Amino acid sequence: MTARILLVEDDQPIADNVLLALMRENLPCHHVRLASQGLALLREGGVDLAILDVGLPDGNGFELCRTLRGFSDVPVIFLTARADEIDRVVGLEMGADDYVLKPFSPRELAARVKAILRRGRLHPSPASVSASTSTASPTTLEADEDRARILCQGHPLDLSRSEYLILKTMVARPEKVFTREALMDAAGLAEASLERAIDTHIKSLRAKLAVHHVDAIRTHRGLGYSLDRARDGA
To answer: In Å, how far are 8, 17, 51, 125, 189 from 23, measured between CA atoms?
Structure first.
């Protein structure tokens, strides 16, 4: 089944170039100019990936993404003229999968869209499946693959799509040290994304685990992160 792409962009020439590039890759794309129109379509469902302009006539792409994350984990790519690192980190922290600065190559954007969709279709590894069913202890972090959620002390965590994919990867292999690059790949973040984005997601995950008095993520300076089996309750 062909993926359905939603483009929310008010600049018509940019939109036309994106639509043409996606069409050449056999990726149907529906274009709207307003945040309100995009939100309405996203609430209807059936969208496989959303491309959001940050500056829109009736709102802000960041706010649209924040609202979207309240009911969907559909992948998001931001389009923006903002080059500041803090804006890029904020966008990724909100649960975006990629961040593309204007001006950009429509062909490169199409390639990033295909890469994110391809990662989303990967089947879970046998290790992660076994990890989700290997223990019934309510104090253990558990990956519930069927419902796409992580349980902490038996309670589902409120995670963004990227946070879920990162933590699921770590839960599957406790004690293994994952590099930032490996976690970026697991989360479906494009190679051009800031490595600092992983640090931001880890900080958010630690805060959400702390609510349940769990301190399970270890930092290995210069190497990456791991899940401490002794601290996750296993």
So the answer is: 16, 10, 15, 32, 23
pTM of the model: 0.57
Strands 142-144 and 155-156: unpaired
Assigned domain for 232 exists: no
Report the distance separating Cα 186 and Cα 188, nearest Å: 5
Whole-angstrom Cα distance, residue 159 to residue 34?
A: 27
DSSP string of 82-115, one letter each residue: ---HHHHHHHHHTT-SEEEESS--HHHHHHHHHH
Digit-coded pLDDT (tens) for 12-58: 999 999 999 999 999 999 999 999 999 999 999 889 999 999 999 99
Regarding whether 96 and 134 lie in a shared domain, the answer is: no
